[in-house]
Amino acid sequence: MMRAFAYIMWKEFLQMVRTPVVIGLLILCPIVTVGFVPFGLRNTSLLRIEVVDQSPGGVGKEIIKSYGGSKHIICTTSLSEQESLKKLDNGKIDAYLTVAPDGKHLYAVIDASHIIRALDANYFLNRQLASTMIMKETESAISTHRLFSAGPDATQYFIVTMIVLLLSIMGCCLAGLSVINEKEGKVLEHLRSTGMSASLYVSSKLVYYMAIGLVELMAGIFIAKIVFGFRIMGPVTDYILLSLCFLFVTVNLGIMIAEFSKNIVQAIYVLVFLYIVLILLSTMFAPLDNLSEGWAATRFVNPFYWAVDGSWTIVLKGFSMWAIPFHYLALLAIGGVMTLLNILKIRRVA
Q1: How far is CA 213 from CA 132, 244, 303, 318, in A?
Q2: Averaged over 159-184, what is the pLDDT?
């Protein structure tokens, strides 16, 4: 059994190295996905803020002076809240800060049409005030929680999603391509005729392409660290285990798509359709609250949701796997069901 497994691993390796396109994909995918794409997704802030000073003590002048010292803020004054609100509605400013007549209360109104930019505005309004005596002497309505979108921009946030995409591409696409090529070349039928069990065939694909995905994960983390200073705030081993659980599902997904497709063209169509739906419903680019209750419920069977949400929790918030055990269990359960279905399907190959 182990000798047969080793021979299959060697076959997979030879099959891969004899395909230059696959080698190029293995090299370029982490470089492009993690090393270049986040540059286009960065949300480096240059915020337009107005200050409405209703106080007689000149508190607003001190605020404007404080904001003038930030490279992320362009600060101007406004005569009234109505004027600032009109500018906010027209997209001419990103937020305005009102100093109450008593000079002891501050109120911020922020344009939240773009959630990441709204977080940036909230963060920088609060950070600049915290560096002055104003916050120590007044009460402010501004509060922020920056763990989820750490840093002066959203680069770290996007890098986590890019690594999840990298793993899904490597796991699903390479495994699916291998199986569909063996189907079209009658290699799968030949292997089955030699007495190879369906469970051995599926498990060999899982082990090999999960190992490839793990190598790509390490490459992606390394590139992100060198280029963007990427840091994993939580336990690294927990993040790797979560990634392996996700690879367990995506490799199975690639095998399943190949098994149920008649040719490589059909497999590509199915893969693209599934990826679009799964990614859009995964909260990768839109918060869960933006989805209706029905669509939000699909997250329970969406591996992308568990991978993205779990990765954010470990990488950005610094929690361990024990804080999100259901993420691991959900991915293992989905992968286990898919493994069983794949084995049953392979058994039908004569």
Answers
A1: 48, 8, 16, 23
A2: 87
Measured in degrees and rounded to the nearest 5, phi and psi for residue 38 equal -60, -20
Mean pLDDT within 49-59: 77
Q: Quick one: average pLDDT of 338-345?
A: 91
Of 137-141, 152-156, 227-231, highest mean pLDDT:
227-231
**Who contacts 294 (Cβ-Cβ below 8 Å, separation ≥6)?**
none
Q: Using CA atoms, how far apart are residues 30 and 163, in angstroms rounded to an integer? A: 8
- What number of CA atoms fall less than 13 Å from residue 332's CA on the CB side? 7
**How far, in Å, CA of 234 to CA of 322, rounded?**
11
Strand order in the sheet with 95-99: 73-78, 47-53, 95-99, 105-110, 139-140
**Domain boundaries defined on the chain:** 2-41+154-347, 47-140
pLDDT at 134: 53
pLDDT, tens digit, 9 for 90 and up, residues 207-242: 999 999 999 999 999 999 998 888 898 999 999 999
Average pLDDT over all residues of the chain: 80
pLDDT digits (tens, 9 = 90+) for 63-76: 777 777 777 788 88
Question: What topology does CATH give the domain 47-140?
Answer: abc type-2 transporter like fold (3.40.1710)
pLDDT at 303: 93
**Token digits of residue 27:** 């090299």
Percent of the chain having pLDDT more than 70?
84
Residues in the chain: 350
